[in-house]
Write a sequence for this structure.
């Protein structure tokens, strides 16, 4: 049995309620002043996504066509970036082995629109494995399948839609490299905050 199917814990639900003062940047000092959680992810999870975008000069909002698989749904955590070939998810399996607990799998699928949409990136098996590894969720520009089962598992997914055809497993892809999702550059370790839309929060010291 792969290591990522053993152990782990289920992530909790994160609400977004508190508002960030308009300072022109999502600074750690501004986050700390809210008196929320002790980690950056916990602090960001209390903020409205619109406020984060406003404080970043209207930058960081991912194309809303990458949307929640169901509602209500929320997701917050540091990105673990993955670049995958269209129609293939071997790179996602590799990421399950390496991504730290609490990470958000951010998967850029490369190819033409037709190629990217031709096969589902993941289904309930990967969703279950990701939960066992303690991952926070997944954001991708590709479709997924097994939507009802993923919802029943409680694994947060933001994707472009659904597709019944499953992926191949032949291209290793790339892990930990800068990617682009919905017109936004994402680096591994940068935080994503997702409710109805996803936002990259690029904190400064």
């Amino acid at each position: 049995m792969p290591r990522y199917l053993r152990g782990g814990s289920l992530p909790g639900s994160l609400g977004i309620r508190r508002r960030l003062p308009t300072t022109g940047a999502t600074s750690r000092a501004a986050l700390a002043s809210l008196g929320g959680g002790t980690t950056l992810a916990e602090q960001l999870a209390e903020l409205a996504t619109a406020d984060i975008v406003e404080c970043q000069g209207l930058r960081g909002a991912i194309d809303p066509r990458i949307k929640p698989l169901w509602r209500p749904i929320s997701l917050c955590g540091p990105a673990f970036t993955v670049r995958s070939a269209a129609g293939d998810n071997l790179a996602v399996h590799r990421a399950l082995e390496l991504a730290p607990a609490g990470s958000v799998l951010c998967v850029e699928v490369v190819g033409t629109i037709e190629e990217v949409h031709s096969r589902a990136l993941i289904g309930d098996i990967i969703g279950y494995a990701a939960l066992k590894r303690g991952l926070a969720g997944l954001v991708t520009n590709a479709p997924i399948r097994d939507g009802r089962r993923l919802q029943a598992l409680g694994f947060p997914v933001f994707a472009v839609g659904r597709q019944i055809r499953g992926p191949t497993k032949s291209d290793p892809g790339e892990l930990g490299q800068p990617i682009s999702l919905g017109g936004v550059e994402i680096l591994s370790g940068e935080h994503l905050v997702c409710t109805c839309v996803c936002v990259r929060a690029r904190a400064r010291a």
Q: What stands out?
A: The CA atoms of residues 119 and 165 lie 5 Å apart.
